[in-house]
Amino acid sequence: MLKAFGSANITAPSYAQCRGPREVAFIGTFGEGVLSPERTDIRDTRCLVLIGSHLGENMHNGQVQEMSDAIDKGATIITVDPRFSTAAGKSKYWLPIKPATDMALLLAWIHVLIYENRYNRSFVEKHTYGFDELKAHVASYTPEWAYGITTIKPDLIRKTAYEMAGAAPATIVHPGRHVTWYGDDTQRLRAVAILNALLGSWGQRGGFYNPDKVHIPHFKSPKYPKPKHTWREAFPGKYKLADMALASGICDATIPSIERDCSLKAWIVNGTNLLSTLPDKKKTIEAIQSLELLVVIDTMPMEITGYADVVLPECTYLERYDMLRSSPHREPSIALRMPAAEPLYDSKPDWWIAKELGIKLGLEKYFQYDNIEEVLDWQLKQLGSSLDEMKKIGVKKFPREFDDLYMDLNEDFEFNTNTGKIELYATSFDDEGYDPLPVYKEHEQPPEGYYRLIYGRAPMHTFSRTTNNPNLSELMDENTLWVNPKVAKTWDLKNDQYIWLENQDGVSSPNSIKVRITERIRWDSVYMVHGFGHTDRRLSRAFKRGVADSDFITRVHVDPVMGGTGMRGNFVTFLFNAPSVGKGGKA
Description:
Blueprint: H1 2-5, H2 13-30, E1 47-51, H3 61-72, E2 76-80, E3 93-95, H4 102-115, H5 121-127, E4 128-129, H6 131-137, H7 143-150, H8 154-167, E5 171-173, H9 185-199, H10 247-254, E6 266-270, H11 274-277, H12 281-290, E7 293-298, E8 310-313, E9 333-335, H13 350-360, H14 372-382, H15 387-393, E10 395-397, E11 422-423, H16 427-431, E12 451-456, H17 470-475, E13 480-483, H18 485-491, E14 498-503, E15 513-517, E16 525-529, E17 557-558, E18 565-566, E19 571-575
Parallel strand pairs: 1-2, 1-5, 2-3, 4-11, 6-7, 7-8, 12-16, 13-15
Antiparallel strand pairs: 9-10, 12-19, 14-15, 14-19, 17-18
């Protein structure tokens, strides 16, 4: 509907707030992105390295099952995290790194592989570009240098590098998700990509496979009009390697400014609670208040519905058809989501909402069908199936077109980069004025009396969308604040004590949070699960249960390469009284 209307400003927080830096980094290195689901061959890996990636908690279900299989077969797991996560509990090595120093560790690992001759020499010589430049670049990035920054001892840095090299090429340094941390995230993920290249794991069994997918034909429709404006006009010369629209960029472009001759006037927000998703809630609210129209499509009364001019209630996934799912994987496949029950109340499926809006906007020529079943059946018949068949089987697999799941190292292979090689030295970055090799840059540390705010996910909840679900809220009805025992002793905190938090900019949450004292978090950090602290009373089970980490993300470090919003540079301190009593509540 938006494309038919002439808008190119279509975006999702999953890019600038989650995975964009890794895609840009891997495209700049290998000429291809990581994709979703990730092209990681975990089931056959011999060494899996997780850096801030929490398999088992963020529940990419297929990857969790594959990691379990890999562990059963004796794979080594290396987890780098300031928190002893579920994955760390399954690991041979846990590296409780000082937050914001990951780049130093990655560069030290690269140094060890190169200077101790542990890299895959034949793979690097045949398939990469810029090795000599990389070798000179990391000469001073020794494990001893990294120890003073990361607090990880040099012998542990070397041991883990040797483990990776010993298992190569069946080694994965996992690119992760939600990689928007400190503002240099594309460069940090470039270091991850370089490590995988040095280990020769790209295109190899137990490393990164070459995925395939079914290309679903588009239902007949006229050609879309060419958009007159895009979000990029608001940021001339910036984020030149971003290959998708930025949700945060659209938010910024909505706020009137003398630097821009136009601003976005209307939003349609479909199934995302931007007040929890985008950093700097104050700016999001300013953008919303600058709009002439805000339409929100949602299944429940999330906070953003309170700002909407129009709310269009969508039925849940159990009450609707969705478009066919075709995900890149080892085997191409399609999957059908079909309703298990009729929609309740006045809720409608998203295809119906889009079609009816399009008709009322005079765009009926783009919606030449009566219902989604007609579209699905037409698409499936082009693929040699039918809606009737898919209703019975749900998922249909297809054969790969080529036998190219893994690279044949005996053949020459041209990568989709400027040089046709895996670029350790990224020429596309150099062309745009960005560092072609990742450089360590020091990040700010917590002020005295403050602790870095780390947040993550729990397997029973999908971000903030399920905390009001009656079954799932029984499993976790509020989040807790993980606090190291040394810190708890200093502040005289007790287990299950409720406290309030305030960040470095004086922003506090209206809700309190329960303390959990645990050795599983470093002394310089605290941790909470994302998605709690709802303020809409209509969310009866989730209302004022726990604290929203998004309340405290007021300091944002924007990635200059692709515009990702680094959100891990915020710090909190403890309040013993509700913030309304003033600063006197601070211990």
